[in-house]
């Protein structure tokens, strides 16, 4: 069974930093592009970032560009999201998501890790 | 920034057909995807490439595309289909993923 398990969510103060992680199992992790998608409580889905198979190409939503950095370690089957200069509006459940490739969509979602930005 | 527009809510009686539209200027050039999210659950991919169903998704879920609008159709709606539904696509200026605001489907 393919699984993505996020960790690292926490309560952090405004302007603080946090790194969240996602470990994959049951898949050949290095074959897939990976995304982070977030959802504030009671709100809709918001795409955050995407990284290609070898970690050389990353894309970001305008709302996080310059503050967040996505990376991956295929030897550890792990993707990361480093979040700096956090704001209250970054508070959300952060999902790690697999891209199936070949335009087949984001087909596997983790359970999410909660990030709360508050003083 | 690019937006995908969905109605906030759609209501339908059991056994009827629900249609959820999603509009966006880039939809004629970009594929659309649909997700279902039930309360307390993670999103589930229902439709990819406008109209393809992943394995395990019931045939009553279908997708279509016409110009700047894509539509998710749920035939023979069941009580268990009550959920939030999100369309997703890409823009033409390099942002690979954009979500619509979501539509809450209520089964009366």
What overall form of chain B do the CA principal axes indicate?
globular
Level of helix content of chain B?
under 10%
> What structural category arises from helix and sheet content of chain A?
mainly beta
Number of strands of chain B: 9
Gyration radius of chain A, in Å: 13 Å
Roughly how many Å apart are the termini of chain B?
Answer: 35 Å
Structural class of chain B: mainly beta
Strand tally of chain A is 11
Give the rounded overall mean pLDDT of chain B. Answer: 96
Q: Which sheet architecture does the biggest sheet of chain A show?
A: 7 strands, mixed
| Order of SSEs of chain B | EEEEEEEEE
The CA-CA distance between the termini of chain A, in Å, is 40 Å
Outline of chain A? globular
Largest sheet composition of chain B: 6 strands, mixed
Give the % helix of chain A. Answer: under 10%
Strand content of chain A: over 45%
List unreliable stretches of 5+ residues of chain A.
none
Number of helices of chain A: 0
Beta percentage of chain B is 35-45%
């Amino acid at each position: 069974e393919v699984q993505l398990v996020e960790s690292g969510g926490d309560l952090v103060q405004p302007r603080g930093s946090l790194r969240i992680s996602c470990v994959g199992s049951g898949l050949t992790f290095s074959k897939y592009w990976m995304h982070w998608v977030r959802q504030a409580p009671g709100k809709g889905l918001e795409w955050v970032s995407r990284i290609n198979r070898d970690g050389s190409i990353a894309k970001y939503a305008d709302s996080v560009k310059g503050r967040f950095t996505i990376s991956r370690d295929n030897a550890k089957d792990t993707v990361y999201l480093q979040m700096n200069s956090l704001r209250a509006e970054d508070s959300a459940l952060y999902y790690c998501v697999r891209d199936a490739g070949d335009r087949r969509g984001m087909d596997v979602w983790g359970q999410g890790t909660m990030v709360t930005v508050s003083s | 920034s690019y937006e995908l527009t969905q109605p906030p809510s759609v209501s339908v009686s059991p056994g009827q057909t629900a249609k959820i539209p999603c509009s966006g200027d880039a939809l004629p050039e970009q594929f659309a995807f649909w997700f279902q999210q039930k309360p307390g659950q993670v999103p589930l991919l229902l439709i990819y490439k406008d109209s393809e169903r992943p394995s395990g998704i019931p045939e009553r879920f279908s997708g279509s595309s016409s110009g700047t609008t894509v539509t998710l159709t749920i035939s023979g709606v069941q009580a268990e289909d009550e959920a939030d539904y999100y369309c997703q696509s890409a823009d033409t200026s390099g942002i690979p993923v954009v979500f619509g605001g979501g539509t809450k489907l209520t089964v009366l």
